[in-house]
Amino acid sequence: MTWSRGLRRLLAGPGWGDTAAPCESCDGSRDEIAGAPALEVHVRAKRFGTRAVLQEVRVRLQPGEIVALVGASGCGKSTLLRIAAGLDADFDGHVRVAGRPHAAPSSDVGFVFQEPRLFPWCSVADNIAFERGGASRDDPQVAALLAEVGLSDYGGALPRQLSGGQAQRVALARGLAGRPRVLLLDEPFSAVDAFTRIKLQALLLALVRRHRVAALVVTHDIDEAVWLGDRVLVLDADPGRLREEIAVPLAQPRERDSAALASARSHVFHSLRAAHAF
Amino acid sequence: MISELHPFIGFVHSTSEPSDVALGSPRVLARRFAAALLGALVPVSVLLLAELANRLGWITSNLLPAPSDVGRALFELGWHTVAVHVAASTARVAAGYAFGAGLALVVGSLVGLSRTARAILDPSFQALRAIPSLAWVPLLLLWLGIDEAPKLAMIAIGAFFPVYMGVVAGIRGVDGKLVEVARLMRLSPVALVRRVLLPAALPSVFTGLRNGLSLAWMFMVAAELIAATRGLGYLLTDGRETGRADLVLAAIVLLACLGKASDAAMARIERRALAWRDVFDDGKPR
């Protein structure tokens, strides 16, 4: 059923976001175009030299929605994230955040990398509040974020005193510190062990829902994609093209061993195999 | 939390770790004492052997005097004379090093940060770096006379290049991934330098500062050997001209002690400034 729905959607062209919750974050404090998706990326073409890396890729995310992006290594997933973040402006197409053009990094878009990338000479609190020049661990926003990621006692610690999982929690908190509308994550949990990964996935889910950000997660982990994603986008390689969009219409949090999730997993698996991802 | 003035990045906040509390504990003190004993093993054995060789007549004492004779030579010079020489040399090193290293920090930052500055300046500096220290002496004497100026210039030249190299290498070697994070946070160019590039370059900068300091001592001796009326280099020349090997050795021992002491002080500053580093050997007892 999921599969036929995905196929229908593909055939019908871009019909986005019907699994996502309606936009409720229009609190009036920030200007935004009513009804506009949190993130809208349209890459007509992105080349490195003569090689086309991405071609005709459209991604739309609603506030509070999680979309997983999977595909073979080197199919341009990370490039797509960099474009969405405004780190790479050398492409044909456009990026809109809340309906407005987004051509350079801004506080509207948070980014979490595969590695924590914390500044080793700054305390955890300073890392979280780095954008506004650092803060003490007693700063209300920093304290709240630390509590949310379960590291209330670590505000004064240095990054070298953290485990890999803890450091990635700090990176998540930093990604949310600018109160973004969109959170981009580039294989955020691929460097931690399996049990830590499960915990961090649950944490990400809770954070995304609470902050009502739209999260675009690049991952190589099929389980992660279907457990987290409201939708899973499968990219073809050479050039990176949207192959299939698979909706995962299951309520969250999801049972990891449920039959419905297994069916979605199998769907993504077959799509990836067809895309020659492995 | 302790806030302290950081030499390059302003105030940094550091947490006091449990291990800091334990630094005064008897067990740690015992371990430090053991380390000091190990470090003293080689020099003490050499001194004993030299003393023994002299007393037994294996070597003639006018070529290699016994350690006790060297000690006596120092004592006979008198505390005041020794202090005058040590103070003269130390002051020269301090002034020349401050000037050379300070200039290197500024020029090195410029060359590290700007491709244009690097293209213009770096080739020339690499060529100047290759000039042996003694080659500068005649030129500096011609230009600056035989007063303090040529000596300070010598020391500054000696200190400049290691620090310059450290700063340039440090800035150029900053992890591009951290710079990308800074880009995402839209740091201004000045903030990028102050908050990311300089702190990230600091380990390499300190390596340069320590190498520069030891070269400053070497260039000081070279400068004082030529023309000086005070200082340890003068003491060396004096000892050679009067055929007093004990005096020469006394000056050498003083140089070793001063060099070691100044490097230890610098290492201490380095350890404090770089306490955030996650390194194999941070000097702390484990």
Q: How would you explain this protein's 3D organization?
A:
The complex is a heterodimer of chains A (about 280) and B (about 290). In chain A, about 30% of the residues lie in helices and about 20% in strands. In chain A, β7, α6 and β8 (about 215-220) form a beta-alpha-beta unit. Chain A contains 8 helices and 10 strands. In chain A, α4 (about 140-150) crosses α5 (about 165-175), α5 runs parallel beside α6 and α7 crosses α8 (about 260-275). Chain A has about 280 residues and is of the alpha/beta class. In chain A, the strands form 2 sheets. Chain A has a 6-stranded mixed beta sheet, sandwiched between helices. A 4-stranded antiparallel beta sheet of chain A has the order 2-1-4-5, covered by helices on one side. Chain B is mainly alpha-helical and about 290 residues long. Helices cover about 75% and strands about 5% of the residues of chain B. In chain B, strands 1-2 form a two-stranded antiparallel ribbon. Classes of the chains: A alpha/beta (about 280), B mainly alpha (about 290). The interface of A and B includes residues 106, 121 and 159 of A.
Q: Topology of this structure?
A:
The complex is a heterodimer of chains A (278) and B (286).
Chain A: H1 2-11, E1 39-48, E2 51-61, E3 66-71, H2 77-85, E4 92-97, E5 100-101, E6 109-112, H3 124-128, H4 140-148, H5 164-177, E7 182-186, H6 194-211, E8 214-218, H7 222-228, E9 231-236, E10 241-247, H8 259-274
Parallel strand pairs in A: 3-8, 3-9, 6-7, 7-8
Antiparallel strand pairs in A: 1-2, 1-4, 4-5, 9-10
Chain B: E1 2-6, E2 10-14, H1 18-21, H2 26-55, H3 67-77, H4 79-113, H5 115-129, H6 133-144, H7 148-172, H8 176-184, H9 189-226, H10 232-241, H11 245-273
Antiparallel strand pairs in B: 1-2
Strand content of chain A: 15-25%
| Order of secondary-structure elements of chain B | EEHHHHHHHHHHH
Q: What's the total helix number of chain A?
A: 8
- Helical fraction of chain B: over 70%
The total count of strands of chain B amounts to 2
**How many whole angstroms does the radius of gyration of chain A measure?**
18 Å
Listing every helix as H and every strand as E from the N terminus to the C terminus, the arrangement of chain A reads HEEEHEEEHHHEHEHEEH
Instruction: Look at the helices and sheets of chain A and give the structural class.
Output: alpha/beta
Could you describe the largest sheet of chain A, including whether it forms a barrel? 6 strands, mixed
The shape of chain A is globular
Using only C-alpha atoms, the radius of gyration of chain B works out to 23 Å
* Widest beta sheet: strand line-up of chain A: 6-7-8-3-9-10
Helix/strand-derived class of chain B? mainly alpha
**In angstroms, what separates the terminal alpha carbons of chain B?**
23 Å
Helix content of chain A: 25-40%
**pLDDT under 50 segments of chain B (min length 5)?**
1-22
Discrete helix count of chain B: 11
Distance between the termini of chain A: 25 Å
Count every beta strand of chain A, where a strand is a DSSP E run of 2 or more residues: 10
